[in-house]
Amino acid sequence: DGGITQSPKYLFRKEGQNVTLSCEQNLNHDAMYWYRQDPGQGLRLIYYSQIVNDFQKGDIAEGYSVSREKKESFPLTVTSAQKNPTAFYLCASSIGQGLRQPQHFGDGTRLSIL
Amino acid sequence: GESVGLHLPTLSVQEGDNSIINCAYSNSASDYFIWYKQESGKGPQFIIDIRSNMDKRQGQRVTVLLNKTVKHLSLQIAATQPGDSAVYFCAENIGGTYKYIFGTGTRLKVLA
Fold first, then answer.
1. What does the pLDDT average to over B69-92?
2. CB-nearest partner of A40 from B7, B51, B96
3. Cα angle vertex A69, ends A68, A74, to 5°?
């Protein structure tokens, strides 16, 4: 079955530590996204990528970094510069920009501070 | 664990009744709209979408209505079932760009 796989489901970060969240898709989608979900707020865009080896900052990119070396993979690193990392992180993909197609989401990674 | 808002508006309906969930969107330039369902601890699941050249679109047990005059979107669920209990939120997209704006959501509780 095609879909988006995020891992791990739960992640704990120590102070000063960088952690990386994995996102893999086998939908052959060009575009991939990372969102942060906090209680009482809509999803907020961290980074997005329209094509391999290219990515753009979203609304809340500070303290995060990404890479897009392969079409199917879009890992997110939460750096020590992100002072409030506790949240539910969602990865999404879509066929491509400009096609008015829905985004498909993974089942998220919950990040907490130790 | 809870992954969405603890203080979302809640709609409680009896099993078998119809549900109507509303959403006000923000940008008059938005021309594509999506409804998602999110269960606790899971990612959002696509339900139905609609483009701005339509007023209504029907799926299996769900209907989306779009009123561009007042920038309002609604999701109707027919014969609501216990499995429909979740948080529902809308998303708007502007001209097929990368930018999707997500609502905060409504929690639907189905009473047996």
1. 96
2. B7
3. 35
